[in-house]
Specification:
There is one protein chain. The protein is mainly β and about 180 residues long. The protein has strands at about 10-15, 25-30, 40-45, 50, 55-65, 75-85, 90-95, 105, 115-120, 130-135, 140-145, 150-160, 170-175. It is about 0% helix and about 45% strand. Strand 9 and strand 10 (about 130-135) form a beta hairpin. The protein is elongated.
Length: about 180
């Protein structure tokens, strides 16, 4: 059982229990429906698994049962999920410290074209009280003439019809003017 689509980037995969006791479930993930690029995702005794923070794309799942002394079950490859959440910018660059009070923040482009970036600033590491600093298509922003202090920045991608990407909360800048 794989819900589709996912706008959050989280995918909950569940499967029925085997009638045989003390088995191990082997869950694989692939990006191709023929499973030619499959790789192990989970091995254990649970009958569910949650894949988190996935970006835009199609994900295919299959599960089989194994037990020592027995042959493996056939694969059940009926699980598919389309994630409509954008992938987050992979990096954010914030030089620190700044002795001028000017801070240039730059970030990676989203793997999806024609997105809008939202850059937020906060004065606390947990981003409490964060507020938007920039919204647009550029991948950089110059913040000028800041007083001494710590400044925290995060960026995400947005696009109409898609779930927002996760935040990339890449760090902070210490402004320490002489």
């Amino acid at each position: 059982d794989v819900p589709s689509p996912s706008t959050t980037g989280n995918v909950y995969i569940a499967w029925g229990a085997s009638p045989t006791a003390d088995v191990t479930y082997n869950l694989e993930l692939a990006y191709s429906p023929d499973f030619s690029d499959a790789f192990p995702l989970y091995t254990g005794s649970n009958t569910s698994y949650t894949l988190t923070d996935r970006g835009l794309g199609d994900y295919y799942f299959r599960v089989k049962v194994t037990k020592s002394g027995f042959g493996d079950s056939a694969w059940n490859d009926s699980g598919y999920c389309q994630v409509t959440r954008l992938g987050k910018p992979n990096w954010i660059d914030i030089p620190s410290p700044s002795v001028t009070g000017n801070v240039y923040i730059s970030w990676a482009t989203s793997p999806t074209a024609d997105v809008t970036y939202v850059l937020e600033i906060a004065y606390a590491a947990d981003f409490s009280g964060a507020f938007p600093l920039y919204t647009g298509s550029d991948t950089g922003f110059m913040l000028g003439n800041r007083p001494d202090g710590d400044y925290y920045f995060r960026v995400k991608a947005t696009k109409s019809g898609f779930g927002d990407s996760a935040w990339n909360d890449g760090g902070y800048c210490l402004v320490d003017k002489p």
